[in-house]
TrEMBL record:
Protein name: mRNA-capping enzyme subunit beta
Annotated EC: 3.6.1.74
InterPro entries in UniProt: Cet1/Ctl1, CYTH-like_dom_sf, mRNA_triPase_Cet1, mRNA_triPase_Cet1_sf
Claim: Hydrolase is one of the keywords in the record: yes
Span of domain mRNA triphosphatase Cet1-like: 137-374
Keywords, comma-separated and alphabetical: Hydrolase, mRNA capping, mRNA processing, Nucleus
Catalytic activity line of the entry: a 5'-end triphospho-ribonucleoside in mRNA + H2O = a 5'-end diphospho-ribonucleoside in mRNA + phosphate + H(+)
One term of GO molecular function: polynucleotide 5'-phosphatase activity
Cofactor field: Mg(2+)
Entry annotated with the keyword Protease: no
Protein localization: Nucleus
Length: 416
């Protein structure tokens, strides 16, 4: 793994922008890729094309279905009678209960066990000719691969999570817009529906208007009330309102020396100056967190039929173990970084998802943000169960739920 590829910079914040009229014209080129830069087709039409992934290519281990593993088990059992082939078996182990976890440096709490819910099976006309029970969603599969490749199969990341209990993994999704850096216009082109983008020359701005903020607040509050109704059979949605202040300090050499070796390597190879973010409860004045946030990898999803695009981010929140008094205030140029006041409303359910609706005030500017966090402990537990060969796990359903929440809230906010 090339750790230097793990870090990326977030885009600056600005007011939301709508797509221009008729943004999806098939003749319109994406602002991030000019027509002049498009490759010229080869003259030799008989030249071999790049090999595409074939149907028989091996799939990632987490994507193997239970019935497929069972069929493989029976097939391997039959092959044991054939001396020309080496037998292989798929182990079947019992699922383990979910242990309690701690997040953001808080004391561990007893988490209610989340029941394993079976997804709706495809029947009748929805079932394909291959007789598959479930057909995966391509966008969700990309997010599954992102987490699997950059966290589950990354030994340095797993090592620091094992050895440093105060370092936490963050899997978050932000609502915003993918903008072309030159024109500052929302990305558009030939695509009319949701897709993962892999384009250079773009930036992501996570912001929303005051009107959208109020509308989302009203919508989420209504959902909390609905979940409390005995007539509605749905999980409870818990609500929390906090007021916090963030202050930023430069990470000095003395503080750097206190960090885990893997964290030091990530910081050194990133080439960026890191800051310590100290969060204080505005009511009590008590420090609640002292963290260094390291951005590992992002994946951006364009959603042209809604007002917002999405950025899936994987980060490390590293607890700063040293005293704050020894640190120097962070600066941008000759000026100090202004403190950031956060008025945040958090909505959580299933012990897996948390939506944060935040009004951020910094100096004379005010911004509104919407974020969705996925509990990383549940994701890692599900991934570990896959590697142990257990049939029932929630790895893919957790990511599908993440994407479904992004889509539902985006459509709620988009004017028809």
């Amino acid at each position: 793994m090339n750790i230097s590829d793990l870090l990326s910079n977030p885009g600056p914040e600005a007011t939301p922008r709508r797509s221009p009229s008729n943004p999806h014209s098939i003749t319109a080129a994406s602002p991030a890729i000019s027509v002049a830069k498009l490759p010229t087709p080869p003259h030799n039409t008989h030249k071999a094309m790049p090999r595409r992934r074939q149907r028989h290519d091996p799939r990632p281990i987490w994507a193997v279905r239970e019935h497929e593993a069972l069929e493989a088990h029976h097939r391997d059992h039959r092959n044991q009678r054939r001396p020309s082939r080496a037998p292989s078996a798929t182990p079947r182990l019992q699922a383990q209960p979910l242990p309690s976890a701690q997040h953001n440096g808080n004391a561990p709490q007893q988490r209610p066990r989340v029941p394993v819910l079976d997804r709706r099976q495809l029947t009748s006309f929805e079932r394909p000719l291959t007789n598959d029970n479930v057909v995966y969603d391509e966008t969700s599969r990309q997010v599954c691969d992102l987490i699997w490749d950059n966290v589950v199969m990354s030994e340095p990341i797993r090592q620091v999570l094992r050895e440093d209990p105060h370092t936490h993994l963050e899997i978050e999704a932000r609502w915003g817009q993918i903008l072309d850096k030159q024109s500052n216009v929302r990305l558009h082109g030939i695509h009319r529906t949701e897709c993962v983008v892999q384009v250079e020359g773009t930036k992501f701005e996570s912001t929303m208007s005051l009107e959208q903020h109020k509308k989302m607040n009203q919508f989420l509050n209504k959902e909390v009330t609905k979940a409390l109704s005995p007539e509605v059979q749905r999980p409870e949605i818990t609500y929390r309102h906090t007021h916090e202040v963030d202050t930023f300090y430069e990470l000095d050499q003395a503080g750097f020396a206190l960090l885990h070796p893997v964290i030091k390597a990530i910081i050194q190879r990133s080439g960026h100056t890191q800051r310590v973010r100290v969060t204080t409860d505005q009511k009590t004045g008590q420090i609640t967190r002292k963290i260094i946030k390291l951005k590992l990898v992002n994946l951006e999803i364009s959603s042209p039929r809604t007002e917002w695009d999405y950025r899936i981010g994987i980060n490390l929140e590293v607890n700063f173990p040293g005293p704050v008094e020894s640190l120097q205030p962070a600066k941008e140029g000759m000026r100090g970084v202004e403190e950031r006041r956060k008025d945040r409303m958090s909505y959580s359910w299933l012990g897996a998802y948390t939506v944060d609706l935040t009004q951020v005030t910094q100096s004379t500017s005010r911004n509104h943000e919407l974020e969705l966090e996925l509990d990383p402990d549940l994701v890692l537990q599900a991934a570990d169960s896959i590697q142990r060969g257990e049939d029932n796990n929630n790895y893919e359903p957790l990511i599908v739920g993440l994407m479904n929440n992004l889509r539902v809230l985006s459509r709620e906010m988009t004017k028809v």
